[in-house]
Each structure stands twice: as structure tokens, then as C-alpha cells.
Design a protein that fits this description.
Elements lengths: L10 H12 L5 E3 L14 E2 L9 E2 L3 E4 L10 E8 L13 E5 L11 E4 L10 E3 L10 E2 L10 E3 L7 H9 L6 E3 L4 E5 L4 E2 L11 E2 L2 H11 L5 E2 L7 H11 L4 E5 L10 H7 L3 E5 L3 E2 L5 E5 L2 E6 L3 H20 L9 E5 L3 E3 L4 E11 L2 E6 L16 E5 L4 E3 L4 E6 L6
Parallel strand pairs: 5-6, 12-15, 12-16, 13-14, 16-20, 18-23, 21-24
Antiparallel strand pairs: 1-11, 2-10, 3-9, 4-6, 4-7, 5-8, 17-19, 19-20, 21-27, 22-26, 23-24, 23-25, 25-27
The protein binds adenosine monophosphate and magnesium ion.
The site of magnesium ion has 5 residues, from loops.
Length: 411
């Protein structure tokens, strides 16, 4: 299907084709825990012991027998001390207490801990309780949180700080994670100069797409390879694209529309790829091209920065997340209410730049004006998109609309 001519593939169908073409991850590896942040867990992790492993104190105070401590004013002789990291030696017998620190094992004989704030200072080797203490008060019981063998982390979740704490605590110092997809980024166009160019002639523009796509890939937890820019030259493109089709995905920007120098589709074909689709019913992003050569996927993104970023985020990112092994790979859209009326044109699913903001317990979406898909700087005023359906429609102010925040919940 050619962009502009004939039928355009629905966004949903294009997503499905990409997701199925990428498929789930095939390989795993182990990593050190301090390199595990952002990786995707490839194994189920269970508790290797009870949590806590023994009855421990939740407070600094005194371990007591609740039977001795049922009334304010009870006097108990302090017979010893137990610290966190110490195996308890003293035993609490009738009429006695043992000074205990948070995390220390509750000594034999004791069944409760009284907070230090609820006792008198130690006088003549004894404390007086200010309040009664009940059984198991301030005691974290053995296995009270998690039993040995219980599921702690399921496979397919991204490892964040909480998962790191869990992995460390169950002794998984080298968790098994999925191998990360290798993604290359290639920007094309005669007009492009590097962002660091000291001066830029009027017929040139700085390459914003390669850095933006690299950043989008990094937010997924990937380490992209940025290839050297290439001009709109048939031979150069063919050679660079053929060579770039390694790893898991080659992302190309520019040169996929219907212009005379849009040579990327041809270069992909010359590299022996099979076309998955060309042209999607979305705005921006219509000329999107997807190909494959064996297990390597090639994606041609339109050169306009807004189109490139939108097409990547809406269609490519979900497929990539699945290939990364994430159990939840679909775009996490949320309902938002429109601040002002919005008209969606029929024909293509439209992704409008938006600024999403919490207001009165709900997310309000303000559409960010953009002069079109070339308006790269308009993106800097947005933090997400709202989408209007392919059939178009009028959405009044206050109407609920589907929004896609760029980074989880809008802040
Ligand atoms: P193309 O898809 O090659 O027809 O490009 C469409 C528009 O996007 C043109 O105005 C290009 O100058 C612009 N463009 C292409 N590549 C980039 C890029 N890497 N960074 C910024 N703008 C680009
Ligand atoms: Mg071009």
C-alpha cells in the first residue's frame, strides 16, 4: 500500500503486524544487580526464606511478656539487651524485660515489645510501663509478610528500584533478564547537518530526529546505535541501509514519502527486505514503512519530527516493548477531559500534541497548537497526545478523550 494512494492500514492493524513481526524475546542473560535497573526480568522470583526470617522487633524498646504488662504501672527488671544483627541470648522470664532494638530477634519468653517512649527511664535496673502492652504488639512475626516460596516478582516486569530491593533481599544478586533489542537509528536527507554545526545555511536544518529517537529508545531502557547521517543518494542509501539491517531493528527517518528523492523504500527493497506495510491511517505519520529481513525489522519513519516521534511512540514502541519481554507492552493511555473543544478530521486517526495536567482529581488535556508535523519546537510545549478516531468527530469542552502521556502519569 503506497502512502497517499489506495487504502491506508488502520493504526490497530499496523500495530498488530509490527507486534507479531517483532515477536517475544528469544534470549536471556544474567546481569549484576547494580546493572539491572531498567532491564526486563526473564525469570519468576520467589522468596528464598521467610520474611521476616524470625519474630523481630518493629521498634526500639523492651521485649516483655504481655502477661506481665497488662496494666500501666507494671514494673519490670531489665535483664539484658539484644541488638539488630545479634542472635538473642537473654531469655525473658516472668517480671523481666530485655532492651531490644528495631530489627532484633525477640528473645525467647517474650511475646511483645513496648516502645521506649511508653516506659519510664531505667531506674534501679527496672522500667515502669506507662501503658499496658498486648500480645504481639510491635512484633513482626516470622513469615508475617511473605513465606518462603511465595512469588515476589513475576517475569516480564521492568526492574525498578523496588524490584532491585526485592531481588537483593531474596539473594538474587544476578537476576536473569531478557537480552535488550539492538536498535540502530539512521537519519537521511540532503538538508541535514549535525546539531553541533557552528553555522547553518538557510537551505539546511539540524538533525533533530536522530537525537530524539535515541532519547525515545533510551526511555525504553535501550542503548541505541546512532549511525552516520546519509544523503538522499540512491547508492549511498542502498548501501547504508543494507549494512544497517543488523541487530533487531533499524529505524530510518526521512525519505519515505512520495517525493522524487524519497528513496528509502527502494533502498529497503534493494537490501532484500520483505515489505510489511507502507502507509498508515494516522496523522501525523501516514508514510510509515515497515519491512523485515529474517529477524531484523526495518522501519522508515517520516522525516517531519512530529511524524517521526508520533509514529515511533504509537506504533513502534509497543512492538519493541513486547520484544523486550515486557508483559505489559501496550501504550498506557488514560482518560482525560478536554479543556477546549476539539475537532478530529475524518480519514485518519489523529494524534494531537497536548499538555496534560491534574486538575481537581482528573487529567485535563489542553491541545498544544502546532503549525503542522514540521513544527519541531511545538513538541517542547507538550507532555503527551490526545487522539481522535479515524472517523473524526467533534469533541466539546469537558468531553472525555483518550490521552497518551509521554512518561507515565502527567506531572
Ligand atoms: P522527508 O520525510 O524526507 O520528506 O522529510 C520531511 C520533512 O522533515 C522535511 O522538511 C525535512 O527537512 C524534515 N526532516 C527530515 N529529516 C529530519 C531530521 N532528521 N531532523 C529534522 N527534520 C527532518
Ligand atoms: Mg527527505
Amino acid at each position: 500500500v503506497k502512502p497517499g494512494g489506495g487504502t491506508l492500514l488502520a493504526v490497530e492493524s499496523a500495530t498488530r503486524i509490527l507486534v507479531e513481526s517483532f515477536g517475544p524475546p528469544q534470549e536471556t542473560e544474567t546481569v549484576d544487580l547494580d546493572r539491572a535497573l531498567g532491564r526486563v526480568l526473564a525469570e519468576e522470583v520467589r522468596a528464598d526464606r521467610d520474611f521476616p526470617p524470625a519474630d523481630v522487633s518493629a521498634m526500639d524498646g523492651f521485649a516483655v511478656r504481655s502477661a506481665d504488662a497488662a496494666y500501666a504501672g507494671a514494673v519490670l527488671r531489665v535483664v539484658g539487651e539484644v541488638r539488630a544483627g545479634e542472635a538473642p541470648v537473654p531469655e525473658v522470664v516472668a517480671g523481666t524485660a530485655v532492651r531490644i532494638m528495631t530489627g532484633a530477634i525477640v528473645p525467647r519468653g517474650a511475646d511483645a515489645v513496648v516502645m521506649v517512649e511508653r516506659t519510664s527511664p531505667v531506674a534501679d535496673g527496672a522500667i515502669t510501663l506507662r501503658e499496658p502492652v498486648s500480645r504481639l504488639e510491635n512484633v513482626r512475626q516470622r513469615a508475617g509478610e511473605t513465606s518462603r516460596g511465595d512469588l515476589v516478582l513475576a517475569a516480564g516486569r521492568a526492574i525498578g528500584p523496588a524490584a532491585i530491593a526485592a531481588l537483593a533481599s531474596v539473594g538474587r544478586a544476578r537476576p536473569v533478564v531478557f537480552r535488550r533489542p539492538v536498535v540502530s537509528v539512521l537519519s537521511t536527507g540532503d538538508e541535514l547537518v549535525p546539531p553541533s554545526a557552528p553555522s547553518v545555511a538557510d537551505h539546511r536544518i539540524r538533525d533533530g530526529n536522530a537525537p530524539a529517537l535515541a532519547a525515545l529508545l533510551r526511555t525504553l531502557g535501550l542503548e541505541p546505535r546512532t549511525l552516520d547521517r546519509v544523503a538522499d543518494d540512491r547508492d549511498a542509501l542502498a548501501e547504508r541501509i543494507a549494512a544497517g539491517l543488523t541487530g533487531d531493528l533499524l529505524l530510518v527517518t526521512g525519505g519515505v514519502s512520495a517525493g522524487a528523492y524519497d528513496l528509502v523504500a527502494e533502498a529497503f527493497a534493494a537490501a532484500g527486505t520483505e515489505r510489511l506495510f507502507h502507509g498508515v491511517a494516522m496523522k501525523p505519520g501516514k508514510p510509515l514503512l515497515a519491512v523485515r529481513r529474517e529477524r531484523v525489522i526495518g522501519v522508515g519513519l517520516p522525516g517531519n519530527p512530529l511524524s517521526a516521534c508520533t509514529a515511533f511512540s504509537v506504533l513502534v514502541a509497543p512492538a519493541l516493548r513486547r520484544r523486550m519481554g515486557l508483559a505489559r507492552w501496550e501504550n498506557a493511555t488514560i482518560p482525560a477531559s478536554l479543556e477546549a473543544p476539539l475537532e478530529g478530521k475524518p480519514g485518519r486517526e489523529s494524534w494531537h500534541l497536548a499538555h496534560l495536567e491534574w486538575r481537581g482529581g482528573r487529567v485535563v488535556a489542553r491541545v498544544v497548537p502546532s503549525r503542522g508535523s514540521g513544527d519541531v519546537l511545538s513538541m517542547a510545549r507538550a507532555n503527551g497526545w490526545v487522539v481522535t478516531p479515524r472517523e473524526g468527530g467533534r469533541f466539546p469542552a469537558g468531553a472525555e478523550i483518550t490521552a497518551l502521556p509521554w512518561s507515565g502519569f502527567p506531572t
